[in-house]
């Protein structure tokens, strides 16, 4: 089989690797049929990631199950599934608490798409081994478009987590979104669908602002801190200065969520944040528990995740197209694989 390797700044190429085989209980082999770049993949391709090349890249996809071990019961060959980015067993104390990105059955930060917690490969591969199939794989709901849901492995389900629980706790809350990639756009769509009273989208990217407006958000290119303006602020830029804007734009006792990977250091206005009695969460997403609810929302027709997809390319074009800086490209193979 082939797996796509990040080989240097804005460089990627196929590498031949042995086909994964089932050699133990609980395992599955899947074939990605619709895979996309996470917002952090853009940072990696630009050379800003913490791990030097080369390594297998990609951690968002819908795949078709090819083979399962005899004891796997949750999925079966031929089924379309979402593959979560984090490797998790589903049975350790952390997994049972919903903290699947902190699974204690595997090395710390075990994941697809970056060799931080071991070599697990990437989801831009012809075939992928899933070690805990019953715990990890989530069947794609009937009627959902694999292209639209290619990001359910991470960004779509993360966006749901960033805003949906807060709006359940604070119906009609106002939301500020400071973003550069797909996460912020998904948040705008979800926030309006779930009843946010006001959504302000801040991005320097004109095309993203135009799309956010179709989701019902107000959109501006930039803003300074909005004094006591929002119930919830979400930062998804990877820039500490933009996190500071989000963190200082919320009402007293408000909440700020940061989904950015901050590879570069910076300063936050901690005293101002302290005086405002705010809460800040900077978190790797425990995505697996959130995928079912995120898929259900997508299936409800209240949102349009397909609108965020910027381009659809053939699987064979991956090495050339992924380095062209498309906003949210999806790479597809024959969905009958």
TrEMBL record:
Keyword vocabulary terms for this entry: Metal-binding, Zinc
Pfam families linked to this entry: ADH_N, ADH_zinc_N
Cofactor or coenzyme needed: Zn(2+)
Any one GO molecular function term: metal ion binding
Domain Alcohol dehydrogenase-like N-terminal: 24-139
Residue intervals of the Alcohol dehydrogenase-like C-terminal domain: 183-298
Matching InterPro entries: ADH-like_C, ADH-like_N, GroES-like_sf, NAD(P)-bd_dom_sf
Superkingdom in the source lineage: Bacteria
Protein name: Putative zinc-containing alcohol dehydrogenase
Organism: Gordonia hirsuta DSM 44140 = NBRC 16056
Gene3D superfamilies membership: Medium-chain alcohol dehydrogenases, catalytic domain, NAD(P)-binding Rossmann-like Domain
Protein's UniProt keywords contain Glycoprotein: no
């Amino acid at each position: 089989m082939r797996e796509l390797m990040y080989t240097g700044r804005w460089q990627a190429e196929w590498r031949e690797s042995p086909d994964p085989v089932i050699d133990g209980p609980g395992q599955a082999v899947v074939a990605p049929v619709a895979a996309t770049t996470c917002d952090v993949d853009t940072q990696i391709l630009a050379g800003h990631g913490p791990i030097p090349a080369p390594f297998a890249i990609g951690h968002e996809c819908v795949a078709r199950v090819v083979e399962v071990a005899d004891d796997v019961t949750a999925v079966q060959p031929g089924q379309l599934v979402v593959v979560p980015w984090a490797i998790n067993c589903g049975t350790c104390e952390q997994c049972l608490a919903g903290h699947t990105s902190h699974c204690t059955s595997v090395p710390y930060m075990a994941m697809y798409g970056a060799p931080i917690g071991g070599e697990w490969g990437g989801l831009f591969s012809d075939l992928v081994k899933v070690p805990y199939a019953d715990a990890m794989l989530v069947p794609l709901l009937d009627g959902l478009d694999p292209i639209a849901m290619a990001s359910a492995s991470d960004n779509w389900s993360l966006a749901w987590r960033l805003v949906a629980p807060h709006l359940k706790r604070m119906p009609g809350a106002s939301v500020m979104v400071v973003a550069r990639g797909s996460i912020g756009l998904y948040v705008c769509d979800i926030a309006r669908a779930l009843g946010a009273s006001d959504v302000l989208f801040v991005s320097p990217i004109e095309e993203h602002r135009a799309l956010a407006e179709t989701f019902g958000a107000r959109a501006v290119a930039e803003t300074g801190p909005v004094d006591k303006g929002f119930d919830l602020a979400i930062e998804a830029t990877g820039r500490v200065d933009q996190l500071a804007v989000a963190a200082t734009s919320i009402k007293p006792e408000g909440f700020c969520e940061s989904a950015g990977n901050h590879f570069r250091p910076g300063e936050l206005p901690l005293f101002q944040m302290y005086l405002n009695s705010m809460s800040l969460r900077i978190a790797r997403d425990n995505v697996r528990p959130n995928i079912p609810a995120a898929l259900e929302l997508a299936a409800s027709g209240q949102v349009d995740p397909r609108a965020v997809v910027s381009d659809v390319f053939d699987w064979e074009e991956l090495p050339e197209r992924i380095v062209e800086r498309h906003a949210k490209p999806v790479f597809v193979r024959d969905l009958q694989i």
